[in-house]
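Subject: KIB1-4 beta-propeller domain-containing protein

B.,
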Amino acid sequence: MDGKVYEYDPNILHLTKCFKVFEMKEIDGEMKQVEVTKLDSQAIFVGNNHSEMIMTSLFPAGCKPNRIYYTDDNMDRVLGPYQPLEAIDIGVFDLDKDCTEPLCVLGESKKDMPPPIWFVPRASHIPAGESLLIV
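Prediction pasted inline below.
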């Protein structure tokens, strides 16, 4: 976010550092992007299949409020075999602390798998005590 343009190098490990969240609001009759710094009791899931905002109170078994859960967006090798260390940028961004932390859902033996996608079921279909994240 320093305003510079960088050339992509596939040999360099790329990891997510931050997120900026915006919402569209009507201001003086025009739609404008307004930065959002709090999600309150909601969380956002970002992935290659789709993104979704949910109420964390519907998923108390591990979904924390004011967080962005994200999966790896490295799709360079979608049409070919995945290599070790490909899908490793999977984590949670905490808007309160302005930092990311890895989300270890794959384990070392599966880090060469394709990037995971989020399955976000309706709250009525989740048995009590079950987790939201399925990869």
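Confidence is low (pLDDT under 50) at residues 129-135.

T.
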